[in-house]
Design brief:
With 389 residues, this protein is mainly α. A three-stranded antiparallel beta sheet has the order 1-2-3, with helices on one face. This is Ankyrin repeat domain-containing protein 53. Keywords: ANK repeat.
Length: 389
């Protein structure tokens, strides 16, 4: 094989009439102990580890059916696809189970688990990148909507002044809380931080020199806490700290962004999940993840936590609890209590209970209508209870 490849430069992936390659043939029973050395040599010369014959059999299928554990591990380390299928829909692990190679099946099962976890991690990273892109688009959409709303508010305020015949107010009267109160409320409900909005005269003049930072210092000047009587001195201390700093060992987890009313998740006619951005289009390509995982990641507020506290402190009706016998119209509440609490009750309550039972027995005995209506006479159990009391 070395002479044919190195001296005569033959193709390392030369196929036979049935599509067998040299990497298939070295895994047969004829190679015996030389199979590992031949396989390593072919892989070092660039043999395709996932090549298939006309029946869809890959080198991993061949090693699994022959039960070659060492060759199986070499193929897995070289990047062989453990989930590949032949023309009959069989995977390499299926051939191991068919021929009874338990050690090879265990090794393939471990490799398949690692491949699935790696694929899931890649798809989750892909989903996080999609979420970051959608969050940026949502922020841009809200900012554009806020600018349009500001312009509409300014035009409405100007038309109202012209209609009333009022003079144009000064710069100080156009406060943020008066002109842009409605737009700020909408932005707070959208979950965005309200940025300072310039005054009406600035918007009409089109002065672009005022930056957001200068407007913030102009309209929202924060006064630091200073214990000193000298106002020109620096603050002695500060009670505020960044929200991400925690005094404990573990850092605080930021709440996941919820895309409700911006992203729409649904299934197409073939059952595949589809993400639709409002007024923009579909997200493509989609990550290969289940629908439930996508729904939980995009809408975290709709999923309840695993542990609900308190779990057992809920109001429950007394009739919904399990009893020794269900309460009915033929039983009195005293009968139920007499069965469970007659030993622990005090003598005063026992005497009142005895008088009640005796009155009930006499009433049932003197009432002829109850017998005519089909109610049974006093049972010996109640009389025995009365006598025991």
């Amino acid at each position: 094989m070395k002479m044919l490849i190195e001296k005569y430069n033959l193709d390392i992936n030369l196929a036979s009439l049935r599509g067998w390659r040299p990497i298939h043939l070295v895994l047969g029973q004829e190679s015996k102990a030389m199979a590992v050395e031949c396989l390593q040599y072919l892989l070092s010369k660039g043999a395709d580890v996932n090549v298939q014959n006309y029946n869809g059999v890959s080198p991993l299928h061949k090693a699994a059916s022959e039960g070659r554990e060492n060759c199986l591990q070499i193929l897995i380390d070289a990047g062989a696809d453990v989930h590949t299928q032949d023309n009959e829909g069989q995977k390499p692990i299926d051939l191991c189970k068919m021929w009874g190679h338990r050690v090879c099946a265990k090794r393939l099962s471990h490799a398949m688990w690692k491949a699935d976890k790696k694929h899931q991690l890649q798809q989750m990273c892909k989903l996080e990148s999609i979420k970051a892109l959608c969050e940026r688009k949502q922020r841009q959409f809200l900012q554009r909507e806020q600018r349009e709303l500001n312009i509409c508010n300014v035009m409405a305020f100007e038309s109202w002044l012209l209609k009333k015949g009022l003079p144009w107010p000064s710069r100080t009267l156009l406060d943020l809380s008066q002109v842009q109160h409605h737009s700020l409320t909408l932005r707070k409900l959208a979950g965005q931080i309200a940025t300072p909005i310039p005054s009406l005269s600035t918007l009409l003049r089109g002065n672009a020199s005022d930056s957001v930072l200068s407007m913030q210092h102009r309209y929202r000047r924060q006064k630091p806490w200073n214990l000193s009587t000298n106002l020109d001195s620096e603050p002695a201390t500060s009670l505020c700290r960044p929200a991400l700093i925690r005094l404990g060992v573990e850092a605080e987890k930021l709440p996941q962004h919820d895309f409700t009313s911006f992203l729409f998740l649904f299934k197409d006619p073939f059952g595949n999940p589809v993400i639709q951005i409002d007024n923009i289009g579909r997200v493509c390509p989609m990550p290969d993840l289940p629908y439930e995982v996508l729904h939980q990641s995009l809408y975290p507020h709709t999923w309840m936590p695993r542990l609900e506290v308190p779990q057992d402190l809920r109001p429950v009706h007394i009739f919904n609890l399990k009893h020794r016998r269900p309460p009915g119209p033929e039983h009195w509440w005293t009968d139920q209590m007499a069965l469970s609490l007659r030993v622990t009750l005090d003598p005063i309550f026992l005497s009142s209970l005895q008088s009640h039972v005796s009155t009930y027995c006499s009433t049932k005995a003197l009432s002829p209508r109850t017998e005519s209506l089909g109610f049974p006479k006093e049972t010996p159990s109640i009389q025995s209870e009365a006598s025991s009391l």
